[in-house]
Design brief:
This is Death-on-curing protein. InterPro entries: Type_II_TA_Toxin. It comes from Secundilactobacillus collinoides. It is a single chain. The protein is mainly alpha-helical. It has one domain: Fic/DOC protein, Fido domain (Four Helix Bundle (Hemerythrin (Met), subunit A), Up-down Bundle). About 65% of the residues lie in helices and about 5% in strands. It is built from 6 helices and 2 strands. It is globular and about 40 Å long. The protein starts with 5 loop residues before the first helix and ends with a strand. The model has no long low-confidence stretch (mean pLDDT about 90).
């Protein structure tokens, strides 16, 4: 399985910031390290599809909740998970609005109330093999 590096996430965020005429910036370097580490942890998934759906879900929630960048964390999360799926020969079928709504919902949910099982199931439902 191919993962995104911290450099790739920073590049994604910087492109978004520059496009919006904002100064790119990292707000929490230690949080970015956690964002990178979580999807790479081995959770003993049964298949590549399961691994991709779980790890895209974790990556998405980690960026949205951890806010490692000064600006555009939602947009960075959306592009990052699409890229992670693509790197592993999958495509996410969420609409842009579904991704924004999901980011807002995750951001507003308290830590103990976030159901990762449901999140993984949702990402699995929106994962299409290339």
């Amino acid at each position: 399985m191919r993962y995104l590096t911290s450099y790739e996430l920073i590049a994604i965020n910087a492109r978004i910031d520059i496009h919006q005429k904002q100064q790119p910036g990292l707000a929490k370097a230690e949080q970015l390290n956690r964002v990178i580490a979580i999807p790479q942890a081995d959770f003993y998934e049964n298949s590549l599809r399961e691994a991709v759906s779980n790890k895209t879900g974790y990556l998405f929630a980690s960026i949205v909740r951890g806010k490692p960048f000064v600006d555009n964390n939602y947009q960075t999360a959306i592009i990052a998970v699409a890229e992670l799926a693509n790197l592993n020969d999958y495509e996410l079928t969420f609409t842009s609005q579904e991704m924004v709504d999901l980011a807002k919902k995750i951001d507003q949910t308290k830590n103990a109330e976030l159901d990762y099982g449901q999140l993984f199931k949702l990402f699995n439902e929106h994962l299409k093999s290339n």
